[in-house]
Amino acid sequence: MNTKQLLAMAAGTLLLAACGNQGADTSKATTSAAQPATSAASVQASSGADEPKVLNFYNWPDYMPEHLLADFEKETGIKVNYQNYESNEMLNAKLVAGNSGYDLVVPGSVFAKTQIEAGLLRKLDKAQIPNYKNLDMAIMSKLDKVDPGNDYIIPWGWGYVTVAINKKAVEKALAGTPMPENAWDLVFNPTYTSKLKSCGIAYLDTPSEILPSALRYIGKPAYSADVADYKAAGEMLAKVRPDVRIFSSTMIDDLSSGKACAAIGWSGDINIARHRAVENQSDIEIEALVPSTGAIIFFDTLAIPKDAKHPGNAQKFIDFFLRPENSASLTNEISYPTANAAAKAHVKPEMASDATTFLSDADMEKMVSPESFTNEAREAMNNVFTEFKKGK
Ligand code: SPD
């Protein structure tokens, strides 16, 4: 997405808000659109005792355990309007435009850093979140780098951007060529992509998901501030562009249906695809590879927009989610690892022992921790990605 598209999206959001829509996409809401309350925003989220019983929640697709929202509504009487977005860029545009109408959002930590610095998020009142104590402090110390003091964001799920394969289809398309030592070669090296194009290569359709991995592949820092590095990554990507068939906001359907045999996707969504293929009783075997050279790790986080109208209700949901059994349901049902240490005892053994879900210490060592992009880097990244997509 280039700068013009981002501005257009932000302008669209402003228009919706001006029309009184509050950014609500009612087509995806689980319940009717909220009427935001008029209480003034305070620096810190309130207890929610005086708020209308409404929570406007904006999250990624395929990222909500089945009964969680209904259980929360039943217990608290707070009605949840639940809607989805497909990329950090989409959420960011809404937050930058303001007046989104959302009370709880799930930015990736790479974007959250800039959002905190820009004053777009509201400081949490940890006294209202007694289950905060359940969080894994090793993960909180990683998040401390983007949110000093852990004041604004709470981990929801985490994972890494990696290479997925449909094992049999890839083996067939490689026709005797051994698998590369570095899994990234499957999607970035023409020697492999020229073979795999016959069974379908898919990329995530977002600059901030592809460019950091591409930069790292060519030996540059994943969050480089040097515009020339992005150009170099664009040159590498241009060589494989003719072989990339699909750009998609998630790999779940492309992989589980057999439309793609190799993909760049999120570890959790790849594992959802793996389980779905099994449920469908197909003979497709999906695998999330853990590249020998590592991958970019991400943390998706619960955050309250600065202008949220129901911040207390948002905090109530955060505390509800941090109950061990509720956090564990994100892993058990959605295949994303939890950052709740107390939840580990509730994670199904087959999920707890899955080395592509909870990474081993050795694999974790190879991962690149979240940083953030400068404005120049973000613009370069968006431009390179737009050119890459056009340049078939
Ligand atoms: N189905 C849930 C998808 C969540 C993906 N968030 C990834 C952000 C990585 N930067």
Structural class: alpha/beta
Low-confidence residue ranges:
1-43
Q: What overall geometry do the principal axes of the alpha carbons give?
A: globular
Number of strands: 9
Q: Provide mean pLDDT, rounded.
A: 89
Instruction: Give the biggest beta sheet.
Output: 6 strands, mixed
Give the N-terminus to C-terminus distance in angstroms: 17 Å
Number of distinct helices: 17
SSE string, helices as H and strands as E: HEHEHEHHEHHHEHHEHEHEEHHHHH
Rg to the nearest angstrom?
A: 21 Å
Strand content: 5-15%
Bound molecules: spermidine
- Please give the share of residues in helix: 40-55%
Task: Characterise this structure.
The longest helix has 16 residues, at about 5-20. Helix 2 links the parallel strand 1 (about 55-60) and strand 2 (about 80-85). Helix content is about 40%, strand content about 10%. The strands form 2 sheets. Strands 4, 5, 6, 7, 8 and 9 form a 6-stranded mixed β-sheet that branches. A 3-stranded parallel β-sheet has the order 2-1-3. With about 400 residues, the protein is of the alpha/beta class. Helix 9 packs across helix 10. The protein has helices at about 5-20, 70-75, 90-95, 110-115, 135-145, 165-175, 185-190, 190-195, 205-215, 225-240, 250-255, 265-280, 310-320, 325-335, 350, 360-365, 375-390; strands at about 55-60, 80-85, 105, 155-165, 200-205, 245-250, 260-265, 285-290, 295-300. The protein is built from 17 helices and 9 strands. Spermidine binds near residues 63 and 269.
